[in-house]
Amino acid sequence: MPKQALIVVDIQNDYFPQGKWPLVGADAAADNAAKLIEAFRQAGDQVVFIRHEFTSDDAPFFTPGSEGAQLHPKVLNRDDEPVVLKHFVNSFRETELQALLDHHGIEQLVVVGSMSHMCVDGVTRAAADLGYDVTVIHDACATLDLEFNGVVVPAAQVHAAFMAALGFAYASVVSTEQFLAANR
Prior knowledge:
It is built from five helices and eight strands; from the N terminus they run E-H-E-E-H-E-H-E-E-E-H-E-H.
């Protein structure tokens, strides 16, 4: 059976209600991510945490060294679980993520986290392009309302559009319940 890893993308304090960049559904998504983290730990599978920090102190969120840039308490890593620090949308860009996965012989990735339309999308597409078999857990991801050309796009529609696009050619897109039922 191919080795798999759970990639926990940017579930950080600034994305929660008291943070600088709150997402719609961040708590519910983090609760589902926590269930998956526990399932991967119990199975002895690799869990990799991604933490985004911008390189400038005037960034709108995830400023270097801030409390907002820290992993949220619902999804803290254990001492034996790596945290990959990134400065770009794509978690593979200028990080050790691919080397870490290759070192452990990982072939399948399960992706959860934030934001659906940005870093989840970026890591999923990059992973597929690098040859990994990717699954995205849609209800363990969160995003926010976006605006384009004077039109506000509600978070649920942003999320649905990106999950539909990823599911078309880059990943299998399933719920937490579906994934856990199929992998017990």
